[in-house]
Amino acid sequence: MEIYISEEDILRNIQNKFHEVYPYLKLECYLCPHEPGEGSANNKKIPGNTPIEDIRLIHSFGWVDISEHRTVAEVEKDFYRDMGLAIQIFRRSRTGWLQTTRTDDLSLGEQNNIGKESFIAGTEKEAPVQSAD
Asked: Does 93 fall in a domain?
């Protein structure tokens, strides 16, 4: 699976394309890249309505491979190296969204499954306990 990024895109379009493939993951874009295993500062996040041409360091267009077997670290690196976009991938949890800093070595497919399991476990309600009386 690949995402096409054009010069005319806005960030939200790329985020939506990614989220359609991985509903329990999301992309956020930042002013500067993060080191492997580190998170990105919230105050450096770029709004979704930002045109790609305004934030990219490399002004090219093309495809980014987001196949389920690729690791988070590989995809984040490709976005920066090939498109000049400093992204961070987040995973859905019971309480919100987590930066995948400690699990960058897991594949997108694994991350999405973990997010799904966590989200479903957090939304399931326990069945009432029946009294033995």
From this structure: yes
| Chain Cα centroid distance, residue 130 | 42
Between 72 and 123, the more confident residue is 72
Terminal Cα distance for the chain, rounded: 57
Q: Output the six-digit token pair for 74.
A: 């590989």
Residue 94 lies in a domain: yes
Q: Whole domain around residue 20: which residue ranges?
A: 2-123
Residue with tokens 């690729």: 70
Rounded-to-integer distance, Cα 101 and Cα 92, Å? 13
Q: Which is more confident, 53 or 110? A: 110
> What does the angle CA 39 – CA 40 – CA 46 come to, to the nearest 5 degrees?
155
Q: Is residue 131 part of a domain?
A: no
Q: Is residue 101 part of a domain?
A: yes
Residue range 79-88, pLDDT digits in tens: 998 888 899 9
In the numeric block, which tokens belong to residue 100? 């995948």
In this prediction, residues 85-103 reach a mean pLDDT of: 88
Q: Is the pTM of this model over 0.85?
A: no
